[in-house]
Each structure stands twice: as C-alpha cells, then as structure tokens.
Amino acid sequence: MTEKTPAELREQRARLIASTGLTETVLRERADAHQLYPEHHDIWVTVEGLDMHLAELAEGPEPLREGLAAAVDERDRARRWAVSLENENRRLVDQAREAKEQARVATVAALNLQRQTPDAAQRTLGRIREARTWVAVWVELGQYFGLTAEQCGVEARARRLGDSL
Q1: What is the C-alpha separation between 73 and 66, in angstroms, rounded?
Q2: Burial, 152: exposed, middle or buried (Cβ in 10 Å; 0-12, 13-18, 19+)?
Q3: In whole angstroms, how far apart are CA 28 and each of 16, 45, 146?
Q4: Which residues lie closer than 8 Å to 120 by C-beta, 6 or more apart?
Q5: pLDDT digits over 60-117, tens only?
Q6: Which of 38, 67, 89, 125 is exposed most, by the fewest CB atoms within 10 A?
Q7: pLDDT tens readout for residues 8-17
Q8: How far is residue 145's CA from residue 113's CA, in Å, rounded to a whole number?
C-alpha cells in the first residue's frame, strides 16, 4: 500500500468531484436525497472515505493507537467469550449424554419390572393357593404389597376369628 500525503489526497478528492461534472454541494445534496447515478454514488463514497482519512491524518497517530487498543481489547473479550461458550457447550453435551444414559437405564429397569411383575404376581398367587393358614396367606400378601408385619398379623387374626375390619 502506498502512502499519499494530505496534499495528494486533497488533489485526488478534487479530481474525483470534477469528474462527475457536478459541484461538491450538488453532489452532497443528491447523495443525501439518494438521487445519484451509480457511478456518481461510487465517487461520493470514495470522497467520503478520503475525507475520513484526511480527518484521521489531521488528528495525528494517537486516536489510531487508541482505536487499535480498543480493537485488541474487543478481540480479547471475544476470545474469552468464545472459550466460555465452548466450555458451556461441552458441559451441556456431557449433561445430554448423561441424561441419555439415565433414560436408557430407566427404560431397561422399567422393561425388567414390567416383565417381572406378572411373574411375581403369579408366584405370589401360587404360594397363596398353597397356604394352609390365614397367617401364611397374609405373609405372602404382605410381602407382595409391602405391608408391615403388624398389618399382616391384624388381617390374619381378623380372618381367623371371622371379624370384619
């Protein structure tokens, strides 16, 4: 990239405006009203760019350094944010993987329970048929339904004595 002096930039700016056949004021007014031909619009955009560059040159290098420092800070902040997002993504992927495994384990357990429940009920029913006393019947029922020994005893005693609860 070749560097031009401010005088050369002002000269280029004047040549560009003159090439349109319009004055700078007319060119500006038509640009503001969005009434420029495409080739004149391109020239106007270039003139605005030259004006900004001339303004930066007039301010000196300090604003450029400040802008560079701000851009570097913004880049570093964006990198930290990207790392944070990557870590969050990894954490969410791990959670999803763990939830998927838990769902699989729960499904297997449910299927096993579904298979076992009729078998357990059939076995309990078979043992109840073989029972010779109310106590033996209520022991089997208590084990199947998760009753306490006291509840089973009360039920067995009530049946043996013919009492209704």
Answers
A1: 10
A2: buried
A3: 13, 10, 90
A4: 144
A5: 667 667 778 888 999 999 999 999 999 999 999 999 999 899 888 888 888 776 666 6
A6: 38
A7: 889 999 999 9
A8: 15
